[in-house]
Amino acid sequence: MSVAASSTTILSEYDPSGQYLAYVTIALDKQRLTVQPIATNIINDTSLLLNDSNLKITCMKWWSTSTSSTTDTVTASILLGLNNGEIWIYSPVSNEIIYKLSTDNNFNQIMDIDLQDDQQTLWCIDSTDTFYNFNLTDFKLKSSFKIDNAVQLNKLSIINDSQLLVASHQIFLIDINTRSIIFNSPGHISPVIIMEKIPSSNFFITGAQNDRFINIYELDATTITTKTVLVGQSNVLKLSTFNESIVAINTEDGRIELFKDPLSVSTTTASLSGSKKRRNVNKKSKRSTTVLNVVPDSQMSIPLQILPFNITINNTLLNFVWFQNAIIPHFKTVQWKELISNETASISVPITSSQSNLKAASSKLLHGIDRASTITYKESNAHISSGDNFKRITDLINTLNEQEQENEDDEEQETLADKILSLESKSKLKSIPTAATNKKSTTTTTTTTGTVTVILSQALQSNDHSLLETVLNNRNEKIIKETIIRLNPKLAIILLEKLSEKISRNSNRSLTLNHWIKWCIIIHGAYFTNVPNLNHVLNSLYVVLKRKAQLLPRLLALEIRLDATLNKLNIDNGDNDITLDELEEQDEDDVDVEYNEELDDAGLIDDGEEDYYSSDEDEDEDEDEDENNEADAVGYAKIGKENHQDDEEDNDGNSDVEMV
Fold this sequence. Notes:
The structure is a single chain. A hairpin with a 3-residue loop joins strand 29 and strand 30. The strands form eight sheets. Strands 17-18-19-20-26 form a five-stranded mixed sheet, with no helix packed on it. Strands 21-22-23-27-31 form a five-stranded mixed sheet, with no helix packed on it. The protein has three domains: 1-142, YVTN repeat-like/Quinoprotein amine dehydrogenase (Methylamine Dehydrogenase, Chain H, 7 Propeller), CATH 2.130.10.10; 147-270 and 280-376, Methylamine Dehydrogenase, Chain H (7 Propeller), CATH 2.130.10; 441-555. The protein has 15 helices and 31 strands. It is an alpha+beta fold. It comes from Naumovozyma dairenensis (strain ATCC 10597 / BCRC 20456 / CBS 421 / NBRC 0211 / NRRL Y-12639) (Saccharomyces dairenensis). It is found in: Nucleus.
């Protein structure tokens, strides 16, 4: 059983101090970069996951602005060469890409990267054998060129300010000033995958793919000569050196081989067949001084082979790393000087409890444990790369239902008269504005918008997440629009990246952040079209919007169905109401009609139907006649009263003549 056989490691590299390991693994169909300290075997949950499955890391190089020999985690960064022609600068402390260098060629992958000793100049080559020179102080491309006859280049190493070493199957010494080949030397049969300088010397080491031979070359001003050939027992995977005293390699069969004093050359005397002459023949090949076998520290029923995938060595210590459970890195540090005296030595390493107790656990069961089953799967080892967070979906639905219920209650409690009065009061207030009020509101809006813009710019430039979150909590669309108008277009790209990250992490926030995305695209869309490689920068935003756009047709179809269903229900309820009203009216009409059989038999009722239909008109005429008769009666009563008073006066015996 092989641990490395199930490993998904693509690339790995120790930092110059040997205290941290950066390695690239496969997470689903995407690559993940993780930086792990060697002091602990607990996997680091903080890692960089590439958003695009087509994006691949092809090479990496540690970079530090500090000149000290030890790596400072604050200033240390990792240069990542990608297959899209870009070089990303990754900060392990903040776990983000702090800058992106572009070769202006998105179809050629970066093959190798190297830095000068001052850590301010970067050289790289791509798949078209083009050389690129970047200045890391201003992150600008200084020059680029190609050299004839230098083709299929895989590795690059900086010698000095004027010379470069590049390798394919051969080794080329390049003059930077004249941009020409100074010297080339036959190297290996297969492509070179290892090329390192030995510090403080004129020697460098090369190793090839599927090859167990390691060549050590001596470099002069104009020539390259082979110094020694180191021979391993199997194909070489990784190599580490410490000055000229020790070389350590790990091979594909899991062994670690040490070569002490690799530059020492022994001379032997050999006889040549078919010739009487004898001459000295220099023997340049050298085998390993010590072979280290890595074995588990406990006995198991099935042998477990530990396969280290990277090593580093210094003056006294040798550190190597291997994977257990396919994803958990484990480190082991040993004193190599104590082992160098023996030709063969064994290093015992601890293994995880799930592996060591597998036999004991199987003995307690009736049928044992099937190694191919999923019983040994651990949820803690599974890494979630993407998905939707439905943790708060129930709370969100309840909140929306409560808001709808409150709105319905308010509408029911508010009468038509209240609505009319509120509208009249609002219209009166709007129709009588004052100059002081207008001036105050304008000043307040301007001040708020300007302040929000300044805060947003500071948050984006300083990468302050809490400050950015304070700005994004603003939901006033007018202020959002004015803020985006005042924002620098370059910062708008960074803002879109931050928004896409927040939406991808929490899909429930898309409702509040959509206004920011909308106004960024509307206002700064013209600038975005002129930015190169924007599709890679905003790839995460594209993925989020595409996923939401795919749901739009289904949501629209669902909305149409709901509207059709509600309209049908309203129509059905309306027809039922009309039918009930008609029935009530008919019942009332039936009550008003009275049928008398005796009158009908006596022939006193003629044309009953006509009388029935004309009953309303007759009733109106009768009412008019009654009113007229009442008026006449009142008038006659007044006249009679006056005449009666006159008669009483006459009866008193006082005539008009007598009064005179």
